[in-house]
Amino acid sequence: MRYKIIVAYDGTNFAGFQHQPNQRTIEDVISRAVNKIAKDPEPSIDIFGSGRTDAGVHALGQVIHFDLSIQMTETNMLHALNSLLPLDVEVLQVEIVPDDFHARFNTKGKRYEYRLALGEFVNPFKRNYTGHWKFPIDIKLIQQAITDLEGEHDFSSFVASGSTVKDHVRTIYEASARLDEDSNEIVFEFYGSGFLYNMVRIMVAVLIEIGSKRRPVDDIPRLFEVKDRNQARGTAPASGLYLKQVYY
Amino acid sequence: MRYKIIVAYDGTNFAGFQHQPNQRTIEDVISRAVNKIAKDPEPSIDIFGSGRTDAGVHALGQVIHFDLSIQMTETNMLHALNSLLPLDVEVLQVEIVPDDFHARFNTKGKRYEYRLALGEFVNPFKRNYTGHWKFPIDIKLIQQAITDLEGEHDFSSFVASGSTVKDHVRTIYEASARLDEDSNEIVFEFYGSGFLYNMVRIMVAVLIEIGSKRRPVDDIPRLFEVKDRNQARGTAPASGLYLKQVYY
């Protein structure tokens, strides 16, 4: 029986999604809970996420699948997992899916949000949940430039060097930035076919540079052209990034 | 020169306000910053808070004073402190005050807020910032009972055993509870002359019991009468409590 689960997590106290020896990871805590339900003496069940998230990055709707020979209703599985998981991870939804569903290979798109707190000082309650920018910034310049990211492009200037992926062509269906006046945060949203390593955080860093006039407003087409990460060296902090939704 | 500062902090990673050996406390991190500004080779400047907060309790407006022979503008002091403080503490305001101002002895009142998240599971992003109640609860019963707390009463049933204070008579000027539908939280507010050790958290625990029909709605006058903590044993978790404002 294949289970698809939708998971939210506060990434603050995790070394990221993927298993690493002697580190606390999302993969490990969820895998431990699933194997506890399976009651296998030897933990043998693997879980598959839609993709990794880095240390400190949050999820509002990460998707994971796993196979379990035990038959349980979706509701019972939801309760069983949440009772076993630590409080910084919550399963929001459980669905029994056909055996050919794959959380990673079947993704059609992903939606990310990035929250950038403005103002001189970091609000203590936001330090782990936003990026922070204390200098003047013009949201209009960001809104003008961000549409250049939409469409199919080679994102070679927007991928961190750790990436092993060869093909850097991705499609962004929707990219937007708005000022949330209540919280005094700029909220970026990116909906695309797929995202390269650190791609959202590099795009946000470029947009911040544009908004604060450290980079021309029409620089993004040039960055697509040059295909060179050295021309876009910034990476916005992990704390502001949320994996919001995965599409199948 | 006496400085009064208003401070916000995320209490999650602190063992409370008051200095304790080998623990990270609010008093220690602020005292360290002040002494760094004073450039004393031996840290000698004491800071005085309006009162303690427990481990995990937050502040939106804690007040502290200290004396410094160095003369600095309020703005410069604000920047100097915030540049030295860790990100979970923020100085919101600095005021130079007369030498007879005392952050603790001059308090006329305090306002606390308690946030109680409802719903079956704990939201990972709220676990350190709210209490949590997963059973049915009737806000109307709470709103009916909470007004019994207003006025001058002997709060002996509402004080934790660790307290060394003899006089348990306090006045609550205002006590309210409302349901915040956006966040699905009950927000309690208490404005009073002063509060005993754990008093707000014990009052909230009693109100939760009333709202979930584990205690009669008219039980608070009886608790004032009996003056017995054993009749009100609950203490709502620290994570939901915020010291909101101190009045002088």
UniProtKB/TrEMBL annotation, chains A, B:
Any single Pfam family the record assigns to this protein: PseudoU_synth_1
Residues holding substrate: Y112
Active site: D54 (nucleophile)
Keywords of this entry: Isomerase, tRNA processing
InterPro entries per the UniProt record, alphabetical: PsdUridine_synth_cat_dom_sf, PsdUridine_synth_TruA, PsdUridine_synth_TruA_a/b_dom, PsdUridine_synth_TruA_C, TruA/RsuA/RluB/E/F_N
EC assignment: 5.4.99.12
Entries under Gene3D superfamilies matching the protein: Pseudouridine synthase I, catalytic domain, C-terminal subdomain (3.30.70.660), Pseudouridine synthase I, catalytic domain, N-terminal subdomain (3.30.70.580)
Domain of life: Bacteria
GO molecular function: RNA binding; tRNA pseudouridine(38-40) synthase activity
GO-annotated biological processes: tRNA pseudouridine synthesis
Catalytic reaction equation(s): uridine(38/39/40) in tRNA = pseudouridine(38/39/40) in tRNA
Record-annotated Pseudouridine synthase I TruA alpha/beta domain positions: 6-106, 145-248
Assigned protein family: Belongs to the tRNA pseudouridine synthase TruA family.
NCBIfam families: hisT_truA (TIGR00071)
Subunit and partners: Homodimer.
The protein's role, per its UniProt record: Formation of pseudouridine at positions 38, 39 and 40 in the anticodon stem and loop of transfer RNAs.
Protein known as: tRNA pseudouridine synthase A
